[in-house]
Design brief:
It is flat and about 90 Å long. Strand 31 and strand 32 (732-739) form a beta hairpin. Helix 9 runs parallel beside helix 10, helix 20 runs antiparallel to helix 21 (629-638) and helix 22 (652-662) runs antiparallel to helix 23 (691-703). It has 4 domains: 9-176, Aminopeptidase (3-Layer(aba) Sandwich), CATH 3.40.630.30; 199-457, Rossmann fold (3-Layer(aba) Sandwich), CATH 3.40.50.261; 461-596, Succinyl-CoA synthetase domains (Rossmann fold, 3-Layer(aba) Sandwich); 600-644 and 715-848, 2-Layer Sandwich (D-amino Acid Aminotransferase, Chain A, domain 1), CATH 3.30.470. The protein contains 26 helices and 36 strands.
């Protein structure tokens, strides 16, 4: 079949296999004829029989055409290639043919020489993503019972399967809708392969040095040689398995990587290149690394600390041997945070400074940390964001096992730094902060803040709850602490007063106190010489207390940063507000992290996926197009969302006829967008219960110059909310929630999530807005139906996750009543789009 649709370049990607190696996947082309025939020529008789259900040693032109001449719309075919350019070898091919609405038959053909490397799983993941993009929600496959490898590919994918045996052939039907199990399986496979691909960087056995005439890396080379490391110069012939340490002029870097790749190097750190690099040069460097099967850190990297504690940074004296993992981008951020880590008494387990992060990014680093677990905190400093959706799912997985802190610099998400190949968002960092919260990550805005959190988490652990114990030296201090704790939503569970004027032993009481608490704050202040001497004795007594929960200290009258205890240093803060803020953020984050474990994705069985996709595909073009009210209502109905019926009117008589048809009571809504939902400005006439009320409202609209308006069924009393979703160039499918009116429009009291949502996400997005108190029984009013509102948000999230071509959807107002929700208004805009990440396992594309 001749192709009639544009070539789907968005399906091209570099992928990481089960063994950590990389290949390229792309849609097939007719010119792949020779590569496909070569693949077939190397197959065993059994592999050919499993694929064609008959012996077929020779392929006819028609056979080849069935695989390669596809329209990449109803019929799709993707192929994997190893190597680059003219030397690229096709290692596997897979495709699907649409058999009926929403259903396609899928099959794979993987080279015998590649079995065991996970090519079938990679092909399946990418075909499933392409299928969902095209409105296919079910695969069917026909497999010989002896073909266990292919059967296992389907079983291991995590989707819901239905199998049957007919005439000696197994028919497998695969539901492609996202499930919690499919998401878990995909995350695990992605983590395994990408972490393995980082092994050459993070656990090198030997090194090769390529330093230009400035000898920037000479101190690093001297340290390595002094430690006995296996380090050679690039002039050596055999370099297989060595990590390359590179400082070379940027224009020469692509050629250097080509040469090193040919000699067996599979990972490189590029320290040079701090100047601005144009996009064309950056892409050439990235293509060179990918073509050589090499992972690249930099350019402009500050270096790394390997998993065994080897310091490969430019500066000397990085504290290692600790439990803190650190990822940074710029060298400036690395220097600043490393200085703070030293002065805080912390030490690193690993560090990755990515520089311009052309290849290795924070996502890769987190995958490595997840595969090499630690209970200590993980720190991520973000100057830019690449694949935000992938970041969210990796961070969520990482945060289930350890504290994760992120330092968000100004402009992240909205500004592009020189030398960085990233998308941006008009939403800026505000959406990112909510995504971090959704992922269980604690966001910080300053190095001091993230280091304060790290000190407590690394040296004391994280509070399991919000019960606070206080050890204080005065009633006034205790009163202030109690008020501050309440403000931070901490509950004072126990209190111990120490009299510094007549100090008595308190260790036994302190040990008993902490058994009633999740964290302890020691707040002691000396105001005279007697108390200062007693303070020193109190500090000595703290030495004998065994820590069972996290402790922090605010001790006035001493200049020491830390008070040592038998179980490690006790973090000291200059003021109680900062100390309580740190404990509160850690304890609340720990509660959110606990909700990530066993979280279930939202799912409904009553969706009409094929109908929804057909409607959107027919309307979406290269420009934004607004769906009609009828089309919007039809689309929403496919996802179980009903709009209150409305009829347009222009006169009193038309208004009366509409009201009689809909049934009383009704509302009249202005046709002007600025007034349409503003009853306070006269744009909405509510609760019109009889013909005279309708006539009077219509006359008011006419007197004000209204040309048209809507007559709509009246929803039960409740709170008006706004639920929106849109396709963002950086974040992907974004969902937002707010209460309607000034809370949204002026105060920007809005919460955000990115799809897919879990059941907990659909409730937390509601609870995060400050005005949500109005839904919970505000001022003696009955509580409203938050469960029904959460279900509505979940359904909107599925619609947006499934349909990238829905550019924006806004439900306003959504009336939340005591029982149920009613959607009184909806606007939907569509536009042809290609989402950058749809649960496909892929490296950053060198064609970006």
């Amino acid at each position: 079949m001749e192709a009639t649709h544009p070539y789907p370049a968005q399906w091209e990607a570099d992928v990481v296999l089960r063994d950590g190696a990389t290949m390229h996947i792309r849609p097939v082309r007719p010119e792949d004829d020779a590569a496909f025939r070569a693949l077939h020529a190397g197959q065993s008789e059994s592999s050919i029989y499993y694929r064609f259900f008959a012996p077929r040693s020779h392929l006819s032109d028609k056979d080849v055409g069935d695989f390669l001449n596809v329209d990449q719309h109803r019929d799709v075919s993707l192929a994997l290639f190893e190597g680059s350019g003219n030397e690229a070898v096709m290692t596997g091919i897979g495709g699907f043919n649409t058999t009926r609405d929403g259903v396609a038959e899928v099959a794979f053909y993987v080279a015998d020489s590649q079995h065991g490397r996970g090519l079938g799983s990679v092909l399946f993941d990418h075909l499933a993503a392409a299928a969902r993009e095209l409105g296919i929600h079910e695969f069917e496959a026909f497999v010989m019972p002896q073909n266990r490898k292919m059967i296992n590919v389907f079983k291991d994918a995590g989707y819901r399967l239905h199998t049957s045996l007919d005439d000696g052939v197994i028919e497998i039907r695969i539901d492609l809708r996202s499930t919690t199990e499919a998401w878990r399986v995909m995350t695990q496979r992605e983590q395994h392969s990408e972490a393995l691909a980082m092994q050459a960087l993070m656990a090198p056995g030997a090194y090769v040095l390529l330093d230009d005439e400035r000898a920037v890396l000479a101190p690093l080379a001297a340290r390595l040689l002094e430690s006995g490391a296996d380090l050679v110069r690039a002039s050596e012939a055999e370099l297989s398995g060595r990590l390359a340490l590179i400082s070379t002029p940027t224009p020469q870097l692509a050629d250097v990587l080509d040469e090193l790749g040919e000699r067996g190097v599979r990972a490189a750190i590029v320290y040079s290149g701090h100047h601005t690099v144009d996009a064309e040069t950056s892409l050439r460097i990235l293509r060179a690394a990918r073509g050589a099967g090499m992972r690249l850190l930099g350019p402009a990297s500050h270096g790394i600390v390997t998993i065994d504690g080897t310091d490969l940074t430019i500066e000397a004296g990085v504290p290692t041997g600790g439990n803190v993992d650190l990822f940074v981008q710029s060298a400036e951020a690395a220097v600043q945070l490393l200085t703070g880590i030293r002065t805080s008494g912390l030490a690193l387990r690993t560090m990755v400074a990515a520089g311009h992060r052309l290849d290795i990014s924070g996502n890769d680093t987190m995958q490595y940390w997840a595969a090499n677990p630690s209970e200590g905190p993980a720190l991520i400093c973000l100057d830019t964001v690449g694949n935000a959706r992938k970041f969210a799912r990796i961070a969520r997985h990482l945060a289930t096992g350890r504290p994760v802190f992120a330092l968000i610099t100004a402009g992240v998400g909205s500004d592009t730094l020189p030398g960085h190949l990233v998308s941006t968002s008009s939403e800026g960092p505000r959406v990112l902060h909510h995504i971090l919260r959704q992922s269980g990550v604690v966001a910080s805005r300053s190095p001091r803040e993230i280091l304060d959190l790290t000190r407590v988490a690394a040296q004391q652990g994280v509070p399991a709850g919000t019960r606070l114990g206080m050890i204080t030296s005065s009633d006034a201090l205790a009163t202030a602490l109690t008020a501050a704790a309440r403000r931070h939503e901490l509950q004072v569970a126990a209190r111990l007063d120490i009299d510094l004027e007549a100090l008595e032993p308190f260790a036994a009481q302190a040990e008993a106190l902490q058994r009633e608490c999740d964290a302890v704050i020691v707040a002691l202040t000396a105001v005279n010489e007697t108390q200062t001497r007693a303070l020193a004795d109190a500090r000595d007594e703290l030495l004998g207390i065994e820590r069972l929960v996290p402790w922090v200290a605010v001790v006035g009258g001493t200049r020491e940063d830390r008070i040592p205890t038998p179980t490690g240093p006790l973090p000291h803060f200059s003021d109680t507000e900062t100390a309580l803020s740190v404990l509160a953020r850690l304890s609340h984050a720990e509660q959110r992290r606990s909700e990530l474990v066993d979280a279930q994705l939202v799912a409904f069985e009553d969706l009409k996926l094929s109908e929804a996709h057909a409607l959107v595909e027919a309307a979406a073009g290269e420009r934004d197009a607004a769906l009609s009210e009828e089309q919007s209502s039809e689309l929403l109905a496919c996802y179980g969302i009903d709009l209150l019926p409305a009829i347009e009117a222009r006169t009193e008589e038309e208004s009366l006829a509409a009201a009689e048809k809909l049934g009383y009571p009704v509302v009249l809504k202005s046709g002007r967008s600025a007034l349409r939902h503003r009853a306070d400005l006269g744009g909405v006439a509510l609760d019109l219960g009889d013909p005279e009320a309708v006539r009077a409202a219509a006359r008011r609209f006419l007197a004000r110059g209204e040309e048209r308006w809507d007559v709509q069924s009246m929803a039960p009393a409740g709170a008006a909310c706004v639920v929106s979703a849109w396709e963002d160039s950086l974040y992907g499918p974004v969902i937002s929630f707010a209460l309607a009116g000034d809370a949204e429009e002026i105060l920007q009291d809005i919460s955000y999530r990115i799809a897919p949502l879990t059941e907990a996400d659909s409730r937390q997005i509601i609870e995060e807005v400050a005005a949500a108190v109005r839904l919970k029984g505000y001022r003696g009013l009955p509580p409203l139906d938050i469960d029904a509102l959460a279900e509505l948000i979940a359904r909107v999230s599925l619609l947006k996750d499934d349909l990238a071509d829905v550019a924006r959807i806004r439900l306003h107002p959504v009336i939340v009543g005591e029982t149920g929700v009613h959607v009184a208004g909806a606007s939907v805009t569509v536009r042809a789009a290609h989402r950058s990440d749809d649960a496909r396992r892929a490296l950053r594309s060198p064609t970006a």
